[in-house]
Write a structure and sequence with these properties.
Layout: H1 6-10, H2 26-32, H3 38-44, H4 52-61, H5 68-71, H6 84-87, E1 116-117, E2 123-129, H7 153-165, E3 171-176, H8 184-195, E4 202-207, H9 209-212, H10 219-227, E5 231-237, H11 246-257, E6 260-267, H12 276-288, E7 292-297, H13 312-323, E8 333-336, E9 345-346
Parallel strand pairs: 2-3, 3-4, 4-5, 5-6, 6-7, 7-8
Antiparallel strand pairs: 1-2, 8-9
Helix pairs in contact: 8-10, 12-13
Bound molecules: pyridoxal-5'-phosphate (PLP) and iron/sulfur cluster.
Iron/sulfur cluster (SF4) binds at residues 132, 134-136, 139, 141, 176-178, 208, 237.
């Protein structure tokens, strides 16, 4: 089941009575049915028992979550599959590495209201849902105190008041967790509130859901997205070309038809996409789906993820190799998030 999202806790001004027997939307059923058991994950992918102890240990730190639609893109029997490596915990997660911390971005100090992160000029990040449809092992929010950041109804009003008063804000970024893990009634309400703030121009949604459960892009979502007067940007999170199958391409087409500009951010991950051919194929594949590469992030030093690290030198070398092969508009910007800086830092 989906845990309660921050919006769940508070707002239900638009709640319609749900008649008994009403079926949940397909995407919610798929989310509820996601694999959350290390043994099931290993069995389904025909991995040897050698992988199980690491999976169980990592699962205890940050639970496994893999929807079927994503699992279907993983090659069974291949422990090095680049999609599997993003979701399968390894023993290496137990290693404590110097410099790797619980809150690498120091976000705890930039939350003027619960569920609101205001670090950059003109943009605010709203934690619209504490959960994700997939749990990525390298996630910099793997230790984020979501429960503490789940605002009550009164606190959401307080957040909206903050946004109404600060006329320098142009853009609301829905983030999480994954904001699209919240239900459409909640999102429709929130987006309507944001659209009513006259100094707001843009709505940005940072999400991995259309990638891991493409059925998330359904008529309800397209309804509230299409209705808002705000300009819309959807920033997807795709790390490897194998993540983009035909269902993902169709979901992207629907988002574009609703008026959204599609961008992608990736994380540079050792053993997954730290090779020029993979990154080139990723950019090409993204564009086939109507998505432009935006950021390529170096790993945030979050405890438990050091085994994914790629050195700055290697990262720069990869960018050079990409520049020799790709048109400029298919080049992602290689960046790092440095706590205290007023923007992402180019490498
Ligand atoms: C990354 C980020 C943004 C958005 O930055 P852009 O460079 O505009 O994509 C906004 N707020 C926070 C807290 C962020 O981490
Ligand atoms: S979808 Fe994003 S926020 Fe969620 S676990 Fe993956 S990287 Fe983290």
């Amino acid at each position: 089941m989906i845990t309660r999202s921050p919006i769940d806790v508070q707002t239900t001004p638009l709640q319609d009575p749900v008649s008994p027997g009403t079926r949940k939307p397909a995407w919610q059923r798929q989310l509820a049915g996601a694999i959350r058991d290390p043994r099931v994950l290993c069995e389904r992918l025909r991995l040897s028992d050698a992988w199980l102890p690491g999976a169980e240990t990592g699962h205890a730190l940050f639970e496994i979550r893999v929807p079927e639609a994503y699992l279907a893109r993983i090659r069974p029997g291949d422990p090095h599959d680049p999609l599997l490596r993003q979701v399968l915990p390894l023993n290496a997660e137990m290693h404590q590495s110097p410099g790797y911390t619980l809150d690498p971005l120091n976000e705890a100090t930039h939350t003027p209201r619960r569920g609101l992160i205001h670090k950059y000029h003109g943009r605010v990040l709203l934690i619209a849902s504490p959960t994700c449809a997939v749990n990525c092992r390298y996630c910099f929010r793997r230790h984020f105190p979501y429960a503490e950041n789940a605002p009550s109804r009164a606190q959401w009003q307080d957040t909206l008041d903050y946004l109404r008063k600060d006329t320098s804000i142009r853009e609301a970024i829905l983030s999480g967790g994954d904001p699209l893990a919240a239900n459409d009634r909640q999102l429709a309400w929130l987006v309507e509130q944001l659209g009513a703030i006259s100094h707001f121009k843009r709505l940005r949604i940072h999400t991995r859901l259309p990638v891991v459960i493409p059925d998330r892009v359904d008529p309800k979502l397209l309804g509230w997205l299409g209705r808002t007067r705000l300009q819309k940007v959807v920033v997807l999170h795709i790390n490897h070309p194998n993540e983009v199958d035909n269902a993902v391409i169709k979901a992207c087409t629907r988002l574009k038809e609703a008026g959204a500009t599609l961008l992608n951010q990736s994380v540079l991950l050792h053993g997954i996409n730290d090779s020029a051919p993979v990154l080139i194929a990723l950019s090409e594949r993204l564009f086939e789906a109507g998505i432009l590469p935006y950021y390529l992030h170096v790993l945030d030093p979050v405890q438990g993820a050091a085994h994914f690290d790629v050195s700055d030198e290697e990262a720069r070398g990869l960018m050079e190799a990409l520049r020799e092969r790709l048109p400029g508009f298919l080049m992602p910007r290689l960046v790092r998030e440095v706590p205290g800086k007023s923007a992402k830092t180019p490498l």
